[in-house]
Design a protein that fits this description.
single chain, about 325 residues, alpha+beta, Sortase, Chain: A, eight-stranded mixed β-barrel, 8 strands
């Protein structure tokens, strides 16, 4: 029988005694060596250790006895309370996440709505500030200057038409003229003109080739530059009918001021020169590379065979 099989057949008590004797034998052997070397001192009154092995009594738990943790499980009420608390915190976390998602979606929708409203406002502002859409000008714009009419006759209504001689080839174009449609009113359009040197303070309307527009005040050529903008702002008025607004235009001198106002701002132009031209001298309406104004009226007074043209430039332009 092998040593391992012999040990397997021993009981726990026998194994304990065997281990004790083995250790005791080693200690005694060591003690003898120490005594032989003179390193062990006997102390009076203290007995040497007992050679008898201690009695080892195994402690076995009964079959129905469990550990302390198993014997004292947590009360059912405590487990239920912890479950309720855990579920509550889980609910709070889920609610917080959903709240953040809802807030994010709401902010995103609100931002989109604000952007749409802002875009609409900007479009409306752009439309309000934009120049009137250019319309196709009739050919009369390039063959004759505005404001022409027959010399007034007492007791008769003013009659449109040129007082002087007009080339025969231009008459069909003039007779076929139809006033262009008026542009949509905008804040940048001229609304008022003031010329302190000749005591003029009059409204400005659109359509200087429109006979009806010239009855109401000073008329601006549709499509010409707006007040204060680069380009040639062309303005015309009668000199001897419908208020005779431009009767004294020939009295203006270089340096005199012409103030043109929109609904929001006023612009001052300074007279540069005055010229007397033929009605067909339409080059005075040509655009310029700077902010300028051109004032036009019939001339001479109550004769109307020519045109008087006053050129002015925007101050500090």
């Amino acid at each position: 029988m092998g040593k391992k099989e012999l040990l397997d057949n021993l009981s726990e008590s026998e194994l304990a005694h065997l281990l004790y004797y083995k250790r005791r034998t080693r200690r005694q052997e060591r003690l003898r060596r120490l005594k032989a070397d003179g390193r062990v001192v006997d102390i009076p009154g203290i007995l040497p250790p007992d050679d008898a092995p201690p009695v080892i009594t195994p402690v076995l738990l009964p079959q129905n006895q469990t550990s302390e943790a198993e014997a004292d499980p947590a009360p059912a009420g405590g487990i239920r309370w912890r479950w309720v608390v855990n579920k509550f915190f889980l609910f709070v976390e889920i609610t917080a996440v959903l709240s953040f998602i809802i807030i994010g979606i709401t902010l995103w929708n609100t931002n989109n709505e604000l952007n749409q409203e802002l875009g609409q406002v900007q479009r409306l502002q752009s439309q309000a500030l934009a120049l009137p859409t250019p319309t196709q000008e009739p050919l009369i714009d390039v063959v004759i200057l505005p404001g022409g009419h027959k010399p007034p006759v007492p007791g008769q209504s003013p009659q449109p038409g040129e007082a002087g001689d007009i080339p025969a080839n231009l008459l069909p174009v003039i007779n076929a003229y139809v006033p262009p449609p008026k542009p949509t009113p905008a804040p940048i359009q001229a609304r008022r003109i003031q010329i302190p040197a000749i005591d003029i303070d009059a409204p400005v309307v659109q359509g200087m080739y429109d006979w009806e527009a010239l009855k109401r005040g000073v008329a601006q050529k549709i499509g010409s530059a707006a007040p204060g903008q680069v380009g040639n702002m062309a303005l015309a008025a009668h000199n001897d009918i419908y208020g005779e607004l431009f009767r004294d235009l020939d009295q203006l001198r270089p340096g005199d001021e012409v103030i043109v106002s929109t609904s929001t701002q006023s612009y001052t132009y300074v007279v540069r020169e005055t010229r007397i031209v033929e009605p067909t001298e339409v080059s005075v309406l040509d655009p310029t590379d700077w902010a300028s104004a051109t004032l036009i009226s019939c001339y001479p007074y109550r004769v109307n065979t020519q045109r008087i043209v006053v050129f002015a430039d925007l101050a500090d332009s």
